[in-house]
Each structure stands twice: as C-alpha cells, then as structure tokens.
Amino acid sequence: MVKAVKVQYAKTHLSAILAEVEAGAEVIISRGDTPVARLAPIAQLPGREWGFVPYRVPSSFFDPLPPSELEAWEE
C-alpha cells in the first residue's frame, strides 16, 4: 500500500510514518502536489555467524610472557 503525505505532515508525524514503513508500507512525501521522495522499507541483511574464520588459538598463547617482553610493556 502506498500512502501520500505532505512535507509538513511528514515532519510532524515522522515517528508514526517510520513505524508504518517498518511494517512494510511505502510513503510518498510531496511538496505541494509534487512528489519529491519515497520512503520504503529496506531489506534486512542476514546476520553473520560467529566463528566464520577457520582459526584456532594455539595453546602457547596462554603461556606467560618472557621477562624481556614484560619489560617492553612496562616502558
């Protein structure tokens, strides 16, 4: 369903118009009798799955740092 509104109405009722668009409606905004913009819902991007990179942290990652590296962090 396409709904047409004037600019002043759109400015006053923007939150309600956005709720309609989120629900799937399209809204045409007109300046006077001239349509100037169309609000339409955007397609949602699918979420990315965690762990999409095949990588394992080596067990040595958790070993204590050697004293020379610890000193470098303290400088």
UniProtKB/TrEMBL annotation:
Can you tell me where the transmembrane regions are? none
- Highest taxon, organism lineage: Bacteria
Q: Name one Pfam family in it.
A: PhdYeFM_antitox
Q: What is this protein called?
A: Antitoxin
What this chain does, per the entry, is described as:
Antitoxin component of a type II toxin-antitoxin (TA) system.
Q: Which organism is it from?
A: Saxibacter everestensis
Query: Signal sequence: where?
Result: none
Q: Which family does it belong to?
A: Belongs to the phD/YefM antitoxin family.
Q: Which InterPro entries match?
A: Antitoxin_Phd/YefM (IPR006442), YefM-like_sf (IPR036165)
